[in-house]
Amino acid sequence: PLEMSAKQPVPFLRQVVSVTKKVRRDPRFDDLSGEYKPEIFMKTYSFLDSIKKQEKEMIQKQLKKCRNMEQKEKLQQLLNRMTQQEQAQKKQQKLRERELSLKRQQRELAKQGKKPFFLKKSEKRKLELAEKYAELKRSGKLESFLNKKRKRNAIKDKRRLPSQKNL
């Protein structure tokens, strides 16, 4: 038997035989799971989009039939969340396509023998903003967007100004 020191208190649950721990692995960080490629992922799980679309239609039908206000509110929140997820996915897809097109252009230039030029993050952001403005102008919502932005900036400026009490 193992001899224990009398000066240290004996632990309440002392392990007599050591138990081997099960090794759990996280597929996000493990090399065994392979490399994550968004294009392949989107192709593999594209069937989920149709299922989500059906679920969304089903929720809309339930929302029209529902009489209970609490249930109606929950369904409305669920519908809003689903639409937001859909919009975020579209936005991400657009961003991915834009990056791929930039890469293709760089490859074309490299084939022609020119030195590749990579955009900075700030430059990419400016291009994205210009595209957003063009889209808003096309849809006719540019004025309302700019008005909202002006109001937001005015509120921020007001907050930054010293209050009238201090003067």
Automatic annotation (TrEMBL):
It comes from Scopus umbretta (Hammerkop). It is found in: Nucleus, Nucleolus. Residues 52-139 form a coiled coil. Residues 147-167 have a biased composition (Basic residues). This is rRNA biogenesis protein RRP36. Associates with 90S and pre-40S pre-ribosomal particles. Component of the 90S pre-ribosome involved in the maturation of rRNAs. Required for early cleavages of the pre-RNAs in the 40S ribosomal subunit maturation pathway. GO terms for biological process: maturation of SSU-rRNA from tricistronic rRNA transcript (SSU-rRNA, 5.8S rRNA, LSU-rRNA).
